[in-house]
Amino acid sequence: MQTATLPTPVTQPRSAPPEPVGTGVRSFSLTINGAEYELNVAPWTTLLDALREYLDLTGTKKGCDHGQCGACTVLVDGKRINSCLTLAVMHEDHQITTIEGLADAQTGDLHPVQQAFIDHDAFQCGYCTPGQICSAVGMINEGRVKTDADIRELMSGNICRCGAYPHIVDAIRDVMQLNPTAQ
Q: Which keywords does this Swiss-Prot/TrEMBL entry list (predicted)?
């Protein structure tokens, strides 16, 4: 039987590694849910982290942080994106909509997709729901859905661990039948 020997402790302090080039903070503005926000963040800050950590818009969820689950889906210029896969600085001249911005700010009325998710019980634990709803709104904006199979295929990037998929499809179908141009 061999015994492992512990490494000899370093007696001299190590010098700090050199600071990487370009690590400074960047100042820019983002338009989110119709309001303009000034940010001072590192250039590698994801849109997801800017929303949650710097702007306290925590409706957008961090799931996998690798673009595989869809929990972080938001709308940029009406198109759905995974906010964990894009840098905040890339969206300075874009309109960003999160789950917090879908309801009518004047009346407080929910977006038709939000209401349909409630009406069809299209969520269980609710963690994926903001991303599911934003993705559904973006998918409806794309105008490519004709069948339930289309809904299932085009929503396949949004994972629901609870398995509420049949209700999600029902909710989206309901909105499309009632108002196929819902935005």
A: 2Fe-2S, Iron, Iron-sulfur, Metal-binding, Oxidoreductase
